[in-house]
Amino acid sequence: MLKSFLGVFVLTFVICSFVLLMQFVWMHVKDLVGKGVEVNVLAEFFVYAVVTVVPLALPLAILLASLMTFGNLGESFELTAMKAAGVGLFRIMRSLIVTIAIISVGAFFFSNYVLPVSQTKLWALIFSLRQKSPELEIPVGEFYDGVNGYKIYVQQKDTKTGLLTDMMIYDYSEGFDNATVTVADSGYILFTEDNKYLILRLYNGESFENLNQQQRKSFAQKNVPYRRETFGVKNLLIDFNTELERYDESVLADQHVSKNTFELIESIDSVAVLAQARGREQSNEIIENRYFGRERRPNRDIGHVDSKEVSNFDKDSLFATFSLREKELTMQKALDRAKSHADMVDYNAIMMEDHLRYIRKHEIELHRKFTLAFACLIFFFIGAPLGAIIRKGGLGAPIIISVVMFIIYYIIDNTGYKMAREALWPCWQGMWLSSFVLLPIGVFLTTKAANDSALFNPEAWIIQYEKLKKKYKECCANKNK
User: Which of 131, 334, 424, 481 has the fewest beta carbons under 10 Å from its own?
Assistant: First the structure.
């Protein structure tokens, strides 16, 4: 059993990892294409990406492998023969249960120690690729805007010599009000030795510079609308760094994706203490400064009295003694104080939300390390009994069932994640939602498979339907009597 399962498991794990890797690459294809990325950088990206998709590919591979293994046993009647010999389903699954338990524990340690390192390096590399300048490939007959602050037009291009003819360059790096237009008969595109600057070497052309900025600075030049320059050879130096500058990984050190369970718990506790202190500070500030705490208020013409003394009076009777002007001033002051109090509450909510969002992200990542490992056990207890019930091996029915089950799992898990992220549910409820839903399904299928239930046998359902139909007719006949 273990030998047949491990062979299928390795194969399905490679397939699932490849599919999820392609999906991940497709999400970040814009960061890779057109950047002139070297092969070693691409290889580094794919290595980190493979490590990142492992926790998600592992449960899917276990589901598919267990379905195929027990489906093959059921289709070849080996499972029936073992049960006929008195070997129960749990005894047949015993070695695989131990193996899956070991894999689940290994998945947790992988998510706890290996995944944070790979995710830190992966996202640092992605941020570096996003900041890298695109590969310069100027098309013919259309404006190219790949250089920041410039638009370049080329009518013709000699692919052998690299000579560009009939060129037009719009320079709006200083703003559209101070744009410079340069036209040239021909030119070349060169790079400096350090690949940090782009050189446009132009021949036989003219440039027109808008002088609106100088016009505003000097009234003496307000009659000069632009400046014209004719040149034989001109070099334009443009900031265009083609080298890959690595993003500092230490910036991601405080992010939730780069921490293990101990670091996550420590961060949650530290920020929770800060949030509680901030909450107490805000509460005391509102109580003491916004209500009748330590403030003193004027009372018409008798100077200032303490608010505690004022609180002993009947407020309505005191207000009734005021003149119309005093009532208006009092109401306006109360309205201003209410608006100020509302602004203070909104500001405090914003300040608290940063701490709470930080805590939620870390709690979600903490629970994720356990839920992904637990999903391996759940999918095994769904796939193994389901394969024993349907008795279909190969790659046909098991793949369809696995994809359907995994889509259901993904939808439920993603829903719980969004509920936890938006603070609509507690983090533990949102992250364990998929486990709470799928665990009863696994228990139900395992029970049915252990009892040799014909759960997916059409003939059994037809028999049950005929029995219900017969009972319904008997009930109708009794009522007519």
Answer: 481
